[in-house]
Amino acid sequence: MATHQPKLEAPAATPATRRRLVGVSTKMYFSAARTASFVSSILTLLATSPSPSPNPLETIDIFIIPDHITLASVARQVSAAPSPADRVLVGAQDCHSALSGAFTGAVSPAVLAEVGCRIVELGHAERRRLFGETDASVAEKAKAVVACGMVPLVCVGEREVGVMGDAAEEVMVQVRSVLAAVPGDAEVVLAYEPVWAIGAAAPAGVEHVCGVVRMVRGSDEVNGRIGLTRIVYGGSAGPGLFRRLAGEVDGLFLGRFAHEPEGFYKTICEVADMG
Length: 275
Ligand SMILES: O=C(CO)COP(=O)(O)O
Fold this sequence. Notes:
Homodimer. The chain has helices spanning 32-47, 56-59, 68-79, 109-114, 125-131, 135-147, 164-181, 206-218, 220-223, 242-245, 261-271, and strands at residues 21-25, 61-65, 89-92, 119-122, 151-156, 188-192, 229-234, 251-254.
């Protein structure tokens, strides 16, 4: 088990020094063949990213979260890519909280780490709604992910459209639960994804997102952590959004609007402030 993988980045407390992060989960949308060709296209775009601009991978972190079955082959595709494309982080969409045992059909975080997974998405709204994930199960899983040397990417978000203060309160219950379970110096990514903005025509409003993220960021639980805590936005995110949220969020977590490699690359360049 890879227990001592380096952190994605040394802890840093200020918005200016928190490295931006952008990624995609393919959920269960792609065939295995489409995942391979999507990853290959992104790696080619990143490997041939035009100078004189610095390659996006020099300044930001990029992750790709395929389904479990293609994850190991995606990790191999990435590690075989020419530098700096080989720095793309490969992630998983979920894992079990136990490292091994009689858990038919489940995926061990230790095995994920073993095959090159670096970041594990937990508590996505679809998993909470369709698979019975709770704050308690997400927290247990986050603890296991950290123990295996990976970074938990924990999805949080209010269920209904409402006012900012209520949304932040609902989100903070989810945030507190997970942060209480992981060591204070562990790196964590929080993905703020209002449930009602996932799978929608457009993302949540900029003011709403910025307001909620500001409240979460300013909370004692987040602000007082030693470990790097980045907050990204997800929910119908795509090209054109990051610039409007910049300064408040550390990056984006994309779904449908990154299904075409060119659209994902365009968003990557915007997050890297390249275009
Ligand atoms: O759920 C998401 C990322 O986790 C976002 O999905 P969509 O961008 O397709 O709404």
